[in-house]
Design goal:
Order of helices and strands: EEEEEHHHEEEEHEEHHEHEEHEEEHHEH
Number of strands: 18
CATH topology of the largest domain: BirA Bifunctional Protein, domain 2
Strand content: 25-35%
Number of domains: 2
CATH superfamily of the largest domain: Bira Bifunctional Protein, Domain 2
Bound molecules: 4-amino-1,4-dioxobutan-2-aminium adenosine-5'-monophosphate, magnesium ion
Shape: elongated
């Protein structure tokens, strides 16, 4: 790979009238009798128009990969920035047949069927660039704050988030599962490395077709010793604010391209809003908010019910900043969540809800340290106690008070981009109905 210019590099007075060579794909093409107008798209989604005598453009088709040399010309009529290239020499690296399956207006399903090609659309590549920044600034925050990054296995024997959403796999002549969360491994590493974090794919065999569930998602998780609930929230609000402010600065033209109004995002800074679960239920009850029961009927929400997406939407529809909900009933939370020693049935846990109804983006908690209590809850949640022997050892050998959280990166990107469907922010989404491309 030699260093080479991209389309936006040459749109400047400096390059005006100079000869340049650009590489890319044919994004659009309009052939006239003498002259052909081509919109070239480079390998970062930038575009520039070039012209070429039509007799030299016979073989050019949409998505053919080419190299073009010619002189840059400042011309106010040129689309996409007022510069174009008067093409002279053309080299074709890869010719595309004329039946390119993706046109200008396509159904969502077709775009998903052809996702391997649709990733070239400027919309998809812009989303991917913003996502890359979100990942980069996440990592930067942890590095700057002295957390160590670790890698955790995704082939596991234990459920973290309940047995019903486990993907079972054949592991030689045994059964294993795809990991729902790296948390238990992060917990183990807290004893060896202090504050640790990881970014791992997590898997949930959830039979729900919603705009915020994937079967495979990118999970940022963090765990630290001697961290309690208040600090747990501070870490998350600092991290999320840092990611957002840096991404807005770094990718401003990308947000503009996607027509994402970032006014509210630009005001996101610590502290976030905080509300107890009890207060949330009181508010929802005062608005006669109902939940669906097992028999299909609706009844008014009660203390003890989990917050569903509708309730999260109701609580945050007028919020500009994210909202931490804390003090969930212990029975709504997994076995590892610590019960508040001063308030029976209350857990030391927090869910972070993105504003404007985007819903839960992270869950965190202090971790239970009492072996017996964890064992009881593992059984109550119908999990296999044998799988957790190693996890309980962590409590037996020098347990330390610790806390952690998991942030769904796809959900974070969805909210930052203000997009309805989570599939739009993932390159190759995995859902109940889709495992290819
Ligand atoms: O709330 P969850 O299930 O919590 C955990 O997995 C903890 N073990 C994390 C931890 O403390 N280390 O998942 C954490 C986040 C959710 O808030 C959500 O953002 C995301 O992961 N998430 C999903 N994202 C997309 N599709 C799904 N099916 C998701 N399930 C969870
Ligand atoms: Mg959760």
């Amino acid at each position: 790979m030699s260093t080479y210019l991209r389309c936006n590099d040459v749109k400047s007075n400096y390059y005006d009238e100079k000869e340049v060579t650009l590489r890319g794909w044919i994004h659009r093409i309009r052939k006239q009798k003498e002259i052909t107008f081509v919109l070239l798209r480079d390998d970062r989604g930038g575009v520039i128009q070039f012209t070429i005598p039509t007799k030299k453009a016979i073989d050019l088709t949409i998505e053919s990969c080419i190299q073009i040399s010619g002189n840059v010309k400042k011309d106010a009529r040129a689309p996409e920035g007022g510069y174009e290239i008067r093409g002279k020499d053309l080299k074709i690296f890869g010719t595309a047949p004329a039946d390119y399956p993706i046109g200008e207006y396509q159904s969502q399903d077709l775009l998903l069927d052809y996702r391997h090609l649709a990733v070239r659309t400027r919309r998809m590549s812009t989303i991917a660039k913003i996502r890359a920044s979100i990942l980069k600034f996440s990592r930067q925050w942890f590095i700057e704050n002295d957390w160590l990054e670790i890698n955790a296995p995704v082939i596991v024997k234990d459920a973290v988030e309940g047995g019903s959403s486990l993907f079972e796999i054949k592991y030689f002549d045994r059964i294993a599962f795809l990991s729902q969360s790296a948390q238990l491994y992060l917990e183990a590493m807290v004893f060896a490395l202090g504050p640790v974090w990881s970014i791992t794919e997590s898997f949930r065999a959830e039979r729900s077709r919603t705009v915020r569930h994937l079967a495979e998602f990118t999970h940022l998780e963090a765990e630290a010793p001697w961290m309690y609930q208040e600090e747990l929230m501070k870490v998350q609000e600092n991290l999320v604010s840092f990611i957002i402010q840096n991404t807005l600065t770094n990718n401003s033209p990308d947000f503009e391209f996607l027509n994402r109004n970032v006014k509210e995002l630009s005001s996101i800074s610590p502290p976030f809003e905080r509300m107890s679960y009890g207060k949330a239920v009181d508010i929802l009850r005062s608005r006669d908010f109902t939940v669906l029961c097992g028999d299909g009927a609706h009844r008014k929400i009660e203390w003890g019910d989990d917050l569903n997406i509708e309730s999260e939407r109701e609580l945050t529809k007028d919020c500009v900043k994210p909202l931490f909900v804390y003090e969930f009933p212990i029975d709504t939370k997994p076995f590892y969540v610590r019960e508040d020693p001063t308030k029976s049935e209350i857990s030391l846990s927090t869910d972070l809800l993105a504003p404007r109804g985007f819903g839960e983006i992270s869950s965190g908690s202090e971790r239970e340290s009492d072996v017996e209590s964890i064992e009881k809850r593992i059984e109550k949640q119908s999990l296999d106690p044998k799988a957790y022997g190693w996890y309980l050892d962590l409590r037996r050998y020098g347990s330390v008070p610790h806390s952690g959280f998991g942030l769904g990166m796809d959900r974070l990107v969805r909210w930052i981009l203000g997009m309805e469907d989570i599939k739009d922010v993932v390159l190759f989404p995995r859902t109940m109905s889709r495992v290819t491309p």
